[in-house]
Amino acid sequence: MKNQLFKKKSVDQILLDSETKGSGLAKILGVRDLVSLGIAAIVGAGIFSTIGLAAFNGGPAVSMLFVFVAFACVFTALSYAQFASTVPVSGSAYTYAYVAFGELFAWIIGWALVLEYAVSNMVVAISWSQYFVSMCEGFGIHIPKWLTMAPGYAIEAHQKMLDVGAENLTGIDRIALQAYETAPRIGDMPIIFDFPAGLITVLVTMLVYIGIKESQRASNIMVIIKVGIILAVILGGVFFVKPENWTPFAPNGLGGVMSGVAAVFFAFIGFDSISTTAEECKNPQRDLPKAMIYCLVICAVLYVLITLVLTGMVNYTELNVKDPLAYVFQYVGFDNMAGIISVTSVIAITSALLVFQLAQPRIWMTMSRDGLLWKKFSTIHPKYKTPSFATIVTGFVVAVPALFFKMDFFVDLTSVGTFFAFILVCAGVLYMDKSGLSKKSKFKVPYVNGKYLVGLGFIAGLVLMYLYGQDSLAEWKTLGASEVILHKSLVLVFWITWLTLSILSFKHDFSLLPVTGILINLYLMSELGASNWIIFIIWLAIGLLIYFMYGYKHSKLRENTVSE
């Protein structure tokens, strides 16, 4: 059994299967299309909504957090690019883990990618709904409140009203209370759901089902529109910037800045999604590495500039709003621009929804080909040349929770799954270097010998912690053993991993860049709450149950091993 769980797929076999069996997918994507899809995925709900909350918590210094997270993503993107040039098939990190670590890790990553793509799309759909409702109200169209939000908001608002009185409710609570009071009822239960979120998911799923070519065209158009409006915000907003708004630069210290990790990282999720389209690329080994780096650099520059402009136009304390880009122009009296941004935001978030809805079915399709999921998931539509059944299932998986769940439930959870996948991809490059697989890579992560540098970095980190982390160390001394396990265990894992990598780097001359990618992603993971990790562990447990009930028995790799 152990041999089966950790048995790896060879690159030659994966490529041979892809060529002989044929994917049935249409090969039409070039570098420009891939960059467009990457920007479509990255520049979505993150920059149009969660960026406001991050700025509210961290102040103008959040712009530096964008630089830091982009820096982390560059190391990961280089690792993805090397794998994409070596194994140019659909499957993304799932396929890469199968090559580097074996079947069990491949399944775990594939299951975690459901969180990155499907669950993050729930956030995107809910965010789209908020902007769409605001846009409609701008045109004088008022959708009933009970049709525009998750029931949890309304129930919480009703409880607050009972506790403090309706006159003391503000903002979203006042709107949610209105939804609770005006909703039709079945008995005493109000009927409340987010209809626009479900509707846009269904419409985008239909577009993805029809074909990659149609999806690519729609994505290209939407990307041109939203990049144009972001440039307009940057260039137009510069004239309203007041430098005094950048003081203090980090009002809540490092803790305030890092509290926005999940929101900021969510804004970057998506650059890896283009690796799922490898079998629809004209020349994946050449084009995928280029596209990943291009779209990441472009988006990082846009994010930093727009964060500086937003926090320069208004004080950071004003930015805890769901539509920060539109809000800042309303704040300075430029209402026409605010209206244009609201309309454009709907288009921008739609494009992000489209790319994630495109990526998830292709992960399931690849897992199904390997026998780890039911055969139906690998069905290719004879006319549209898309993974038809997997696309329909993805539509249901995203649409139903988007109708009924709150956005903040999903944001951190999405980041946990993504960090996990990123770390394994970076670690996979180290395996490729040691096993000689890197010789087959047409693109390689630049090699910098980490023999001494990783260990020196570890020592420097300890020194800096001692010199500048006394507040954090004092907090540790006040915690009991159970509190340390619950709230600080990931910090311990981070330092233990760094020490272990220092030793292994000294012994095996590990490449510095993938190691740096592992450490930065693990550090960012340690900043997420323990509750997210508990949910993630439960999610993995469910996934492992499915694997051992179905995937282990039906694995094509296992069947081939037995027949041999």
TrEMBL record:
TM region(s), chain numbering: 34-56, 62-81, 191-211, 223-241, 253-271, 291-317, 337-359, 384-404, 410-431, 452-469, 484-503, 510-526, 532-550
Main location: membrane
Gene Ontology cellular-component annotations: membrane
Keyword Transmembrane helix: yes
GO molecular function, one term: amino acid transmembrane transporter activity
UniProt KW keywords: Membrane, Transmembrane, Transmembrane helix, Transport
InterPro entries, per the entry: AA/rel_permease1, CAT_C
Domain Cationic amino acid transporter C-terminal positions: 512-555
Transmembrane keyword on record: yes
UniProt membrane topology term: Multi-pass membrane protein
Protein's UniProt name: Amino acid/polyamine/organocation transporter (APC superfamily)
Compartment(s) of residence: Membrane
Annotated signal sequence range: none
Organism for this UniProt entry: Sphingobacterium alimentarium
